[in-house]
Amino acid sequence: xxxxxxxxxxxxxxxxxxxxxxSKHLRFQARPAAAAxxxxxxxxxxxxxRSPSVRVAASAEQGRKKIEVVSLGDTIxxxxxxxxxxxxxxxxxxxxPVDDSNLIIRALDLYRKKTGTDKHFWIHLDKKVPTGxxxxxxxxxxxxxxxxxxxxxxxxxxxxDLQEWSGEIGSxxxxxxxxxxxxxxxxxxxxxxxxxxxxxxxxxVLIKPPEACATAxxxxxLRLDQxxxxxxxxxxxxxxxxxxxxxxxxxDLEPPAFEVLRSLKKLKKRFIASNRGDYSAVFMSGSGSTxxxxxxxxxxxxxxxxxxxxxxxxxxxxxxxxxxxEWYREPMSxxxxxxxxxxxxEAAPVVD
Length: 352
Fold this sequence. Notes:
The chain is of the alpha+beta class. The chain has 8 helices and 13 strands. It has a single domain, classed as Ribosomal Protein S5, domain 2. The protein has helices at residues 103-115, 137-152, 159-166, 215-221, 232-242, 254-260, 262-273, 302-305; strands spanning 41-45, 64-70, 75-80, 88-91, 121-126, 181-185, 190-193, 203-208, 281-285, 290-294, 313-320, 337-338, 344-345. The strands form 3 sheets. The protein has a 7-stranded antiparallel β-sheet with strand order 7-6-2-11-8-10-9, with helices on one face. The chain has a 4-stranded mixed β-sheet with strand order 1-3-5-4, covered by helices on one side.
């Protein structure tokens, strides 16, 4: 799989401190939160991802994508469990698996396997990122779990270790151990940090219909002879020199995704037609089914006016970066949700 200029927003673990102190309740700044505590606990915010340009090639080794983190995300609450044999995961969303098929549990199992630690956890996932959105919520949750487990274990593994290990359970996970912007090759697991090319105060809006796109079905319908011939590095250079624009938002997965979910093509066309200069680019994220508009946090008017779109998910987002040995911090007043009545609610701040 080859992708270029793949702007991504995904699961992040936000922290004020790098390590929890023993026998102390510790709160990490987080978005959606909750859960049981057992002596030491932390909340972690996860993020979604965004892809203005996705390029697909015949070989997985040729894959390329330019990825950036954004502020929309889940929150995970971790607490040490008295159990030495099992993690316990709960969630606020019905249908989300809570057994070892969930990437959070797989990430914790992987950490114990690699480090030899016997720590287990109570985990609560407060889900805000919709499933089937092409925003990579599961991968980001897994990265968050690895980071959190390492904090509870005194930071015995390096960030490079966590990044390398994470590729064993998901090719999108290693990205989250970048600084927030990266050029990824292979299946996505080879991550090269790059400077953040877009300003963190650049706003965007995400719109997702109730229906999801099955990733396997999207790839099944992909025709490699009809993919874009644009050079991923040329697209990256264009973004560097001139910023984001519609021309660099080349997503080879859009045509097959629009076949799988025809209403998604209609949504993108409607979005573009309604643009009065508010958005510098409108594109589908990943394999769908989220349409992204970069340049304004406000959704187009038809979201409110047309009953066909009364059930869509709408959220504001921004780009995020992180410092070494810290997880991603959420910017002020980001991740707003919009309702049909044109009201919004800010994510409540979490304090120590």
